[in-house]
Amino acid sequence: MSGLSLRYQPAPASIRSLAVGFLERRDVGRDETALELPLHHALAQFMLDADYVVRDPAAPETSEIAPRAGLWGPASRTRLGRSQGRLHVFVAILTARGARAVAGAPLSELVDRRLDLEAVASEASRSWIARLRDAATFEARTALACRWLADVSIGTAAEETCRLVDGIAEHRLRGPVTALSRLVGVGPRALHGRFTRQAGWPPKTWLRVSRLQRVLRTVHPAPWGPAADGDVRLEFTDDAHLARDFHDLTGLTLAAYRRMKRSSGDPLLHTVLAPSFPLPRFHWTPFVDGSTLAMQESMRGIAP
């Protein structure tokens, strides 16, 4: 089994439009390397012990220390991270509306970015953040996070695009962009422009990353949380389409993902522990459409 523990608490109904739930992860090992796979939710992450260094494929020659209290926007590409010691992190999993309320900015300014929460939050929010970071237990942190999000929600409105993004992230809206455009009552081109301006990614990217979460939950040998709703394989033309899309988004093959999960025994869904791989071993190459990036031959030992 992996050397980590997870605790999870769903968000109460009073703030369900702002947060999905709260997660706390504590690692037993030190200096572990991980692949952070694409994710359609924004995360308010609080590093409670060691710092966490992230390398982004969009800037392969640089790395950054994640903010101690950070707003991690939805991610469309795999990133590489390493803890500088024993990792202990508290996470609020935010909806699109919740991320917009916390940041005071549209999703287009958050996707594929990591922001310092104390730099973007209001003065009232900074007070909550300080109290949350100093809390002694998961239960106390969760209670403070609920009160913080209820406070920042005052005066916020759910834009149509945020509602659509949350529908996609909650797996209520699926299928091709044309079906989504018919639901909204605008053409695919107009919907593409609206999403790109307001949500940062075109609707196709949101749909693909959300579908990836269903695939991960299906192929993981023993994931935490409920199983995927329905057979996600029916959303692909064939098995080759599934395999190609998975590799394009994650840089891993399905077999490699399953093998690494069985080897580590960890229940994490979109984070793959790879403790034996130093940061310089990874290189990144953009795909033609520019929407995803994949790890290439330098991933010897991970991708067959």
What structural category characterises the helix and strand content?
alpha+beta
Ranges where pLDDT stays below 50 over 5 or more residues in a row are 276-304
Number of strands: 13
Instruction: Please tell me how large the radius of gyration is.
Output: 19 Å
DSSP helical segment count: 10
Please indicate the percent range of residues in DSSP E strands (runs of 2 or more): 15-25%
SSE pattern: EEEEEEEEEHEHHHHHHHHHEEE
Describe the biggest sheet?
Answer: 6 strands, antiparallel
State the end-to-end CA separation: 23 Å
GO molecular function: DNA-binding transcription factor activity; sequence-specific DNA binding
Domain HTH araC/xylS-type: 159-260
Protein name: HTH araC/xylS-type domain-containing protein
Give the gist of this structure.
The chain is α+β, with helices and mostly antiparallel strands. 36% of the residues lie in helices and 21% in strands.
